[in-house]
Design brief:
Blueprint: E1 5-7, E2 16-18, E3 37-39, H1 40-45, E4 54-59, E5 76-80, E6 85-87, E7 115-119, E8 122-129, E9 132-138, E10 142-149, E11 152-159, E12 164-170, E13 185-189, E14 192-197, E15 203-205, E16 214-216, E17 237-239, E18 245-247, E19 257-264, E20 269-273, E21 280-289, E22 295-304, E23 311-319, E24 329-334, E25 337-341, E26 359-362, E27 369-373, E28 379-387
Parallel strand pairs: 1-2, 3-4, 15-16
Antiparallel strand pairs: 4-5, 5-6, 7-8, 8-9, 10-11, 11-12, 13-14, 14-15, 17-18, 19-28, 20-27, 21-22, 21-28, 22-23, 24-25, 25-26, 26-27
């Protein structure tokens, strides 16, 4: 028989056309189609099921979620796709109301449009406009990007009308900023390059082509420097015609500086400096002052040859602006002993009298200079030696 079948209609418009008995109005009669109602065990037990067969599973208390019933996890409408029963998505499940699992890779083609996740004034936007791919995180007070690796974390954020920052936290051991190729790292401000680090490790400040490990194109300032102490050699630094800083020499022979200080009680003798280089000649500057800001400065020539005990010290000149005589009186007892006396030294509230800044320098052996305090109160003596040979 080849025909169209109609129920409640004499003019069926399809192979099987069911027309509601009461398509409108307030009738309480039931109109609709009742599909076969079976439990999961029955659906699981069927064999030879034609593709597109439709059923309603009214119970999952029986049977198991295996085989052709692998997808039957709740009551509902199912159709047979040739190998298993598939649930009809009559509940309109989607990413807006349900979680799910991707079964394969997926591609979203934006066609120049953006995807935005918005919560009031805050949003995350993914855009692909023109040749640019961009992710934008916008917050009413802070936009942030957070990356987590285990318990390590890095945060990049910018606050409204405040600083932008990149910070690492958690158990991250360090924060590296750099390149994985032989290309430089640049730091820009106001849209222009201010600092460059080349692949060779050279740092340029004010230049993008540094020729030294540190290349500063402009004036430099050091606000704080430590005072040299002990017997460490200090070599003066100069600038060549290209502005490159160089030492006075490649060794500490010429221009090398050593310094020391020592506090000596009245009438006592102690080492002022040790460790002078053998075979060296120095110019020495000794300073001593008191609690009233009276300061004396004296200059000496020192030779330090241990062979045949050819070491000696001799006073050259000095300055005491508060004394009646600016220069000291040197008493050369022998080649290793020089007494230094300052005339017209005023008394001081720290107890020092007119002799309180007087002292004697001696060389008991090569490489050592002692100082004897000839004043009436303890004093601190400072010495700086510049090597000239």
């Amino acid at each position: 028989m080849n025909a169209q079948v109609g129920i409640n209609t004499d003019t069926p418009e399809a192979t099987f056309d069911i027309t509601a008995k009461n398509p409108t109005g307030t009738s309480t009669d039931v109109d609709g189609l009742l599909l076969p109602r079976v439990d999961r065990q029955k659906a699981q037990s069927m064999t030879g099921v034609p593709v597109s067969t439709l059923i309603y599973v009214n119970s999952i208390a029986t049977g198991t979620q295996t085989g052709t019933a692998a997808n039957i996890d709740s009551a509902g409408y199912y159709y047979f796709n040739g190998s298993a029963w598939i649930k009809l998505n009559i509940n309109n499940l989607n990413i807006y109301n349900s979680n799910g699992t991707l079964t394969a890779n997926r591609v979203v083609t934006t066609a120049g449009n953006s995807l935005s996740f918005t919560n009031g004034a805050n949003n995350i936007l993914i855009g692909t406009t023109g040749t640019q791919g961009i992710i934008t995180a916008t917050g009413s007070t802070r936009g942030a990007l957070q990356l987590n690796g285990g318990s390590g974390q890095i945060n990049a954020f910018v606050d409204n009308n405040n600083a932008a920052q990149i910070n690492s936290t958690g158990n991250s051991t360090e924060l590296n900023i750099g390149t994985l190729t032989a290309t430089p790292v640049n730091i820009l401000t106001n849209g222009s390059n201010k600092v460059t680090i080349t692949s060779a490790g050279q740092v340029g400040v004010g230049t993008s082509a540094p020729s030294e490990l540190l290349d500063i194109n402009g004036r430099a300032r050091v606000r704080t420097m430590d005072m040299a102490t002990g017997s460490n050699f200090i070599t003066p630094v100069y600038s060549d015609s290209n502005g490159v800083l160089i030492k006075a020499s490649s060794s500490a022979v010429y221009g090398g500086i050593i310094s020391s200080s020592s506090t000596i009680a009245s009438g006592a003798t102690g080492a002022l400096i040790t460790g002078m280089a053998a075979g060296a000649v120095y110019k020495a500057i000794v300073t001593v002052g008191d609690g009233c800001s009276y300061i004396t400065v004296a200059e000496y020539m020192v030779t330090n040859y241990s062979f045949n005990n050819n070491y000696a010290i001799k006073g050259l000149d000095g300055l005491f602006s508060n004394g009646s005589a600016k220069a000291p009186t040197f008493t050369e007892t022998n080649r290793t002993t020089t007494g230094t006396t300052w005339a017209g030294k005023p008394t001081c509230a720290d107890g020092g009298n007119s002799s309180s800044l007087n002292y004697t320098l001696t060389m008991p052996s090569a490489g050592t200079i002692n100082v004897t305090n000839n004043g009436n109160v303890g004093r601190t003596y400072n010495i700086v030696l510049t090597r000239i040979i």
